[in-house]
Amino acid sequence: MMLAGLRRVGGIGILSVILALSAVFPAAAQGGGTTTNPAGGMTIHVVQRDETMFGIAMLYGTTVDDIAEANGIADPRYIAVGQRLLIPNAHLDSPGAVIVYSIKPGDTLPALALRYHTTAEILAAANYLTNPLRLYVGQDITINQGVEDPAQPIPQAIHYIQPGENLARVALRYHVSLIDLLRANQNTGSWPVFPGQKLWIPAEPENSSGVLQYWPPPFTSCTLTPIPAVQGQTISLHLTTQGPATLSGTFLNYPVQIVTQDATQHSAAFGIHPFTAPGIYPLVLTAVEPSGVQSGFTLYIRVDDGGYGAEEISLDTQQQDLLTSQVTEPEWEKIARIMSTFTSQRYFDGLMGLPSAGAITSEFGTRRTYNGGVLNTFHSGTDFGGATGAPVLAPAAGVVVLAESLPVRGNATIIDHGWGVVTGYWHQSEIYVAVGDVVTQGQIIGAIGSTGRVTGPHLHWEMWVGGVQVDPMQWVRQSFP
To answer: Which CATH class for the 225-304 domain?
Structure first.
C-alpha cells in the first residue's frame, strides 16, 4: 500500500499486534506480550489493513529505514496486508525512536517534519537552528519521531508556479480541491501567485510521485555521495531534469563539469583540495533549457577534516637541486595543465584497480616537510613499495597523454580516463606505453623504479578530478559517478 496515511501515527493497538503475531507463533501469542525469533532476536509483525511502515516503526520504537533494511524493502511506501516483517530492536514499552539524521540535498525542515511526524518548530528548537532555511548537506540533526500527529491534510509534493498558471489550474492538474490547496498554503485566495512561487500540494495528488520534492524547475532530483564531504576526497553528483538542459556548476572556485548522459540525466565528479579548511561551502548549479531560459539553485555542503598526518622527508645532497623553484615550477605547471584535462568521453567503469601489488608506504594527504623545511606541502598521491622492475598496472581504461622523463617525477606516465579523471605514475624505471595509446584495466604500463626525486624505489600514484588533486584510493573503494 502507498504511504498515504502519514497522519496515522501508531494507529493500531497492542491487541491487533498480538493477534497478528499469533498467526506466526500462536502458543506464545496466547500468553501475551511480543513474540521474537529465538534465532535472530527479531520481532515478527504481520501487516494489518491500513497500516503504514511509519506507524509500525513508531509502535516498536524503531525506524522505517531499519525495518526496510532488515526486510530488503527498496520502497517502504509499499507493504501488503499479511506481509511478515522482521522488526529489529523492537521496544513496545518505548514507542517512537530518536535518530540522528544527516541532511541530504533537497531536505527541508517541513519535509522532515512530515516524514517523521513532528513539526519544523520542534526540529529547529531541538537542534538549536537559528536559521532553519540554511540547512547544509551533511549536517547532522536529532529527530524525535512521532511527537506530533498532524490533524490537517499534509502536503505530499511541491509545485513551482510556471508562467501563465494560477491556483485553479494547479488544483485541476493535481486533482485536489481549490479550497484544500488554499488552506495548505495559508492563502485566502485574495492575492495572486507568481512564476517560481512554491506551493504545497495537499493529500496524495494523482500526478505526484508520492514523495516531497523541493527542486526549482527544470531540476527534479539531486544526489551527492559521499555525505559529508571530506578534504582530499571526490564527490559524485547526479542530477535529473524535467526535460533537456545544459548544466554547469562551481564549487570552491573550481568549475564543475557536468556531463549529460541523456536528455534528463546528468552526472559529474569533482574533487575537494586537501588544504580546504573544514566548513560549509556553496555548490552553485545552473541549467540552461533549449528555449534559453536559465535557472539554478545553490546547495551548501559540509566539508570535514581529512585527519591527515605529517612526515619529514630527508633527501641526500645529490638531490638538493630538485627542491629549487627553478626546477619544480616549470614541471609543476606542465603537470597541472595536463592533469586538469577534461574530455567528454568516459573510459573508466566501476571500481578502479590497484596500480601495484606492493604495500602502501605513504598515504595521500600527509603533510610534508623536506630536510627540516616548513610543513607547507602535502603528499599528492599514494606510494607503493616494490623492487625495481616490478610491474605498474593501469587501474582503469584510458588514453595515455604523457610518457616521458621529468626531473622531479622521473619516468612519468599520465592516463586520461575521461570526465576530468586523470591519473599519474611517477619514478618508474621503464615506461611501456606511448602518448596516444589506449590502455585497458590491468594492462602493464611500466615498471617500478627510483628515478627523479626519491629516497628509494617505489611507485607514486596520483589522481586529479576536475583539476583538483584527490585521494586515488577512494576510487578503489567507491564507484564514480
So the answer is: mainly beta
